Amino acid sequence: MTLSEENYLKAIFNLEEQTHKSVPTNAIAEMMETKASSATDMVKRLSEKELLKYKPYQGTRLTPKGKSHAVKVIRKHRLWETFLVENLDFSWDEVHEVAEQLEHIQSDKLIHQLDKFLGYPKTDPHGDPIPDEEGNIAKIKKKVLAELQQEDEGICVGVDDSSSAFLKYLDKLDISLGNKIKVIEKEAFDNSMVIQVEENTISISSLASKNIYVRKTS
Amino acid sequence: MTLSEENYLKAIFNLEEQTHKSVPTNAIAEMMETKASSATDMVKRLSEKELLKYKPYQGTRLTPKGKSHAVKVIRKHRLWETFLVENLDFSWDEVHEVAEQLEHIQSDKLIHQLDKFLGYPKTDPHGDPIPDEEGNIAKIKKKVLAELQQEDEGICVGVDDSSSAFLKYLDKLDISLGNKIKVIEKEAFDNSMVIQVEENTISISSLASKNIYVRKTS
DNA sequence: CTTAATTTTTAGACAAATCTAAAAATTTGT
DNA sequence: ACAAATTTTTAGATTTGTCTAAAAATTAAG
Ligand SMILES: [Mn+2]
Ligand SMILES: [Mn+2]
Ligand SMILES: [Mn+2]
Ligand SMILES: [Mn+2]
Q1: What residues of B are in contact with residue A3 (Cβ under 8 Å)?
Q2: Are strands B193-197 and B200-204 parallel, antiparallel or unpaired?
Q3: A115 pLDDT higher than 90
Q4: Average pLDDT rounded to a whole number, residues B133-146
Q5: In this complex, is the C-beta atom of B113 within 8 Å of any C-beta atom belonging to chain A?
Q6: Spelled out in words, what is the top-level CATH class assigned to the domain A3-62?
Q7: Ligand 4 geometric centre to CA of B69 (Å)
Q8: Where do you find CATH 1.10.10.10 in chain B?
Q9: Residue B183 contacts residue B146 (beta carbons within 8 Å)
Q10: Of B100, B52, B47, whose CA–CA distance to B76 is shortest?
Q11: What contacts B39, CB < 8 A, 6 or more positions away?
Q12: pLDDT value of position A140
């Protein structure tokens, strides 16, 4: 399995998770930041290897074999991100690029031992669940902050957009995983919110509140 | 810089260190386990990028730029090997393959932080010096065990052959880095030796004793 | 239902890294 | 010195992954 094949597999897995429908070629190309013709070529190769089912013009779906491989790559990605933050003083907005490389290292022992070294973490630095050795992914109970009503309280458990720009913005507002968040006010006009994060009271836009996940506590 | 280019650079660096002469194409091909024609192609590409000087039929020598890059890859290789042994319970005969992949991960911060995390180790699990951030490689004072005379004593500081087979053999004999070794007897007939390693007395062949490095202490 | 817009595939080209087979240069042996 | 052996390079082919441009299929609109 080549690096490029693994990246496509991961992209297709994520797209399929979102819609639970067969994935259009253009969606793959967009996610991979490549051309549709390249995506077609790759999809044909992966189909040849029985990692996915592909019908021309009908899009693709991963086979169990393809899914299982994609999940392994995601497991590695999230374990490495955890290592970078926990042990090498990376911040959560710096880890993605490096994990994007590390996720392709081939060694069962390495990943097993890394998991052990980290103490079998359940989630990565962005709150995303780390698949276990058998490929099971725990479902994390979460709601978008934007859905909470005035006076509602929750704990920050993840982000939808984990781009460096958004994560840095959250750092500036002192919002991080595990923080207690309370909705003070919701502005109907633009859907912005005034929230209390631990001790601080701040205002955030609708765009931001739609990208923050919380576990409701009240 | 591609993975393959980095592997060639490292191979050429090592060959040049051995002989301090310009490196023949066949030697490169042999070390890379590839064909001479492939080595020629790659050497031309690296020459194009000014990482080495290549004159047809005359062999190649790395430029300072090429050397510096090779040393960076070696630094990464040895830091990762150290991490695997120190933190992930790998044994010294298991690390090479994985480090061979990890050495190509591109991130200055990663390698700087890994070095810090490990406590700035001076040598890797095979006793080889780890180049510092500026590319300086400490010279390790060492002698092959085979050169010691009867009654001489030393400390095991490295191995020449770090193949898995040889390292496992050393494990079986309980020889590891830092062990005190004393020459009890040298057999003129086949150059085998009887040595005392810490508390154990064992006999080793000439081939083995030529692949073990010691720092003489008496 | 037929045309227009969009999506997807095919055709052909290119760079990287490799190979085999053949040609060319260098080194060795007498 | 000259033929033979060895080393090295070239020529041409292959695989992976990508691209552009054009053709084909599907979907949307009037
Ligand atoms: Mn990746
Ligand atoms: Mn993540
Ligand atoms: Mn390598
Ligand atoms: Mn080593």
Answers
A1: none
A2: antiparallel
A3: yes
A4: 96
A5: yes
A6: mainly alpha
A7: 18
A8: 3-62
A9: no
A10: B100
A11: B8, B25, B26, B28, B29, B32
A12: 94
CB contact under 8 A, B105 and A98: yes
Nearest to residue B3, comparing CAs of A70, A101, A96?
A101
Do residues B215 and B157 lie in contact, with contact meaning Cβ atoms separated by under 8 Å? yes
Q: Where in chain A is the domain with CATH 2.30.30.90?
A: 143-216
- Beta-carbon-side half-sphere exposure of residue A199 (alpha carbons within 13 Å): 0
**Answer CATH for A143-216 from 2.60.40.10, 2.30.30.90, 3.40.30.10, 3.40.50.1100:** 2.30.30.90
At B104, the amino acid letter reads H
Q: Which residue from A207, A209, A205, A188 is spatially nearest to A143, judged by alpha carbons?
A: A209
Could you tell me the maximum CA-CA distance found in chain A, to the nearest angstrom? 56
Contact A105 B102 (CB under 8 A): yes
B20-29: which pairs have CB atoms within 8 A and are 24 or more residues apart?
B21/B59, B22/B58, B22/B59, B22/B60, B22/B61, B23/B59, B23/B60, B23/B61, B24/B59, B25/B59, B25/B60, B28/B60
Out of A106, A113, A117, the one facing B101 most closely (by C-beta) is A106
The single residue listed with the structure tokens 């013709």 is A37
Query: What was the pLDDT predicted at B201?
Result: 97
Confidence category of residue A218, pLDDT binned at 50, 70, 90:
confident
